[in-house]
Amino acid sequence: MQTAYIPVPQTTRNRAAPAWTPDDILALYAMPFMDLMHRAQQVHRAHFDPNAVQLSSLLSIKTGGCPEDCAYCPQSSHYDTGLDADKLMPLDEVVAAAKAAQAGGAQRFCMGAAWRSPKPHHLEAVARMVSAVKSLGLETCVTLGMLRDGQAEQLKDAGLDYYNHNLDTSPEFYGKIISTRTYQDRLDTLARVREAGISVCCGGIVGMGESRRERAGLIAQLANMEPYPESVPINNLVQVEGTPLAKVEPLDPFEFVRTIAVARITMPRAAVRLSAGRETMDDAMQALCFMAGANSMFYGDALLTTANPQMQADQRLLQRLGMHVEPAPHHAAPEFSGAGHAAQPQAGSGQPCAEGGTTCR
Ligand code: SAM
Ligand code: DTB
Ligand code: SF4
């Protein structure tokens, strides 16, 4: 039997952590599919329950009219996608949506705003939303664009757990997708988030017409962050009419699964999240993604402005796969907790609780 070549990260003398070069990552992508899946499963099982999934729900708290020109985005004011620009959502509507997400089984509530960067009065309003959502027992995440000095600290003080800010693609391909801000701008915001003690949620989009080398370049950027992000959303482009990428050639589904596997191998302890694009994936494809090491997904009938699979469809999928929802943090009380439990409202996870080491009931 032929022994498969298994790339390992190169270590360099000046770094404590191993550095992944784009060539290392290309070598992973080039592995026979079955070998790559096996390797990803080994890594996944060394760090996680392979049958557990984390659920995050999304809400667009400020939709459309964004001054940035991200070529994939329906919310950019540079493109006519038929989307009206809204004002910031009132606090009570945000809290109602968070309660509904929690009742549906979500553990984290992520609030997104179509801003280049939040203004001070916006940030104060979002900080109030973060505190209110956190007090429900949900984990909190926001994605608001670039942050200035002091803004990450303000969010941290309000109780923010995660900040989402994606690198989106490799530095080489980035200029073909966005011209209104630089890669370094993104890295600077990520550094501010990390410095403030907020967990980093950072990933990207595939299927934008980039090459495999450019996909590998994105993964190398993420995996070589010190530390790498706690949460890595992998989005498959949602092709929105009116955006410059509306007609791009869709990515081979196996290449998407490979991307998940490569993310899992290079970022062993990260939550690798199935993000945008699940609407066009069938159940078998999503099962392959879980096999490749995805252990988180956006859950809820909508993403920000586009559709996501219906919650009931996701519940059925997890049940059919015998998967369960990761125990909720902070004593949250989801009614749905996955396979074998879907019919029973749950008062708590029954698992050791991160807060205080006792059993969470
Ligand atoms: N304006 C903020 C920003 O760009 O950081 C936050 C919101 S923005 C919509 C969040 C992320 O959604 C983007 O970084 C991108 O990765 C993802 N996204 C937006 N449109 C998408 C699409 N059509 N398909 C897949 N992912 C998309
Ligand atoms: C992420 O990486 N994907 C989510 C979340 N982070 C904010 C957003 C996906 C948006 C898809 C297009 C839309 O619904 O507008
Ligand atoms: Fe604006 Fe974010 Fe969309 Fe870019 S991705 S246009 S920054 S909302």
General description of the model:
- The model is unreliable at 10-15 and 330-361 (pLDDT under 50).
- This protein is of the alpha/beta class.
- The longest helix is centred in the first third of the chain and has 15 residues, at 33-47.
- The protein has a single domain, classed as TIM Barrel, CATH 3.20.20.
- The protein is built from eleven helices and ten strands.
- The protein has helices spanning 22-29, 33-47, 91-104, 120-134, 151-158, 171-174, 183-195, 212-223, 253-266, 283-291, 311-320; strands at 52-62, 108-113, 139-143, 162-164, 199-201, 204-206, 231-236, 271-274, 296-298, 324-325.
- The structure holds S-adenosylmethionine, 6-(5-methyl-2-OXO-imidazolidin-4-yl)-hexanoic acid (DTB) and iron/sulfur cluster.
- S-adenosylmethionine is lined by residues 72-73, 75, 112, 114-115, 143, 145, 165-166, 168, 205, 235, 237-238, 240, 276, 304.
